[in-house]
Amino acid sequence: MIKKTIIIDNQLGMHARPATMIVKAASKYRAEFKIKKDDTEINGKSIMGVMTLAAEYGSSLELIADGVDEEYLIEEIAELFASKFGEE
Amino acid sequence: MKKLSVKEFYNTKNEDFSLTLLTNPETLENQIISQYLHRPGLALSGYFERYSYNRIQILGETEISYLQSMKDEKLYDRIKELCVYEIPCFIVTKGLSVPEQLEYLANEMKIAILLSKMSTDKLYHSLRKYLEDVFAATKSIHGTLVDVFGVGILLTGKSGIGKGECALDLVERGQCLITDDVVKIILRDDVLMGTSTNDYGHYMEVRGIGLVDIEKMFGIQAVRIQKRIDAQIELMPWQDNMDYERIGLSDNYVDILDVKIPIIYLPVSPGKNVSVIVEVVAMNHILKTYGYDAAKVYTEKLQEDIKRKAKVRNAMIDDKE
Hints:
The complex is a heterodimer of chains A (88) and B (321).
Chain A: E1 2-7, H1 16-27, E2 32-37, E3 40-43, H2 47-52, E4 60-66, H3 70-82
Antiparallel strand pairs in A: 1-4, 2-3, 2-4
Helix pairs in contact in A: 1-3
Chain B: E1 4-5, H1 6-13, E2 19-21, E3 31-32, E4 37-38, H2 41-44, E5 56-59, H3 61-69, H4 72-83, E6 89-92, H5 100-108, E7 112-116, H6 120-135, E8 138-142, E9 144-148, E10 151-156, H7 163-172, E11 176-179, E12 182-188, E13 191-195, E14 203-206, E15 210-213, H8 214-218, E16 226-228, E17 231-237, E18 252-256, E19 259-268, H9 274-289, H10 294-318
Parallel strand pairs in B: 4-5, 5-6, 6-7, 10-17, 17-19
Antiparallel strand pairs in B: 1-3, 2-7, 8-12, 9-10, 9-11, 12-13, 13-16, 14-15, 18-19
Helix pairs in contact in B: 4-5, 7-9
């Protein structure tokens, strides 16, 4: 199991479009994927779950992956956050 | 381009439009090539510029009384001028009496005169409707057409994917079957109408059983003759790398006879209840038609929530006390 903490860097926060990108990217991997914000932990492969976080600009999230391809999963998701999902 | 011979039109539709043939049978050889009708008022008065001669010419009370008001010689010359054009046929309405010269020249020039008992208005509208159907663009599609809560849904997908079984399940849940396997689509007033290619009834092949009669089995409420097609659902085997819609903010469309309708790509896997999903698609379609888009409403709420939270966070950072 690996964990990585990231900060949301795009102004609009994690709205529907970024949430979809995360879920679609994560679903390609076999590892389990969870996202934790404050005391809420959700399944990162579930679109409703990710949207439930309503994570705003500047908030921090903990990405937790567990499985054979966990490193690749975390790497791709972290990249998505770093690229600000192609937004400002 | 589609064609309809005057003979076929007369033989099949003389009862519907209460037509009798005034001229001799040899005049029935012309072809109808236009779905439009024409009332040749200006042509009768001698103005032949832009004359739509290739349409069925309707002679109502106005036209006939105008002809009757003309002097014999002038009338003969004018009708001769008119009959030089390749007119498919004349239809005289209200059973009005036709001037002798017109009947004589129509026979000479081999243009049929059909006498209808209907009023001009009534004939005009029902004939237009009929011709529109005859000349309408059509297409046959491999699929199953069902009426789900009043929404016409075209189920498509490879053979054996379960279109028929899905339709059967829907029928049992109280929905209607229009046709299974081949759907004939007719374009009518920018609307796609789906129907069966034959009028044998509502039969269906169920793998392992053979043919069954849906109407006999489930009753008349389980079937429909035709239905407007509102959306298409393409059933497909589940693929891991396929990009399935997750939120529903962006709609996919498909072009059928130049009409755009929404299409939904629905992954099917064993044990999945497809018919309930088809019902959900239908209900969601109705909601969207009435202006409620669940995906939009939800994501707007989410965006507001995120914005509010960001504001609170900024306020906390700025607060130096």
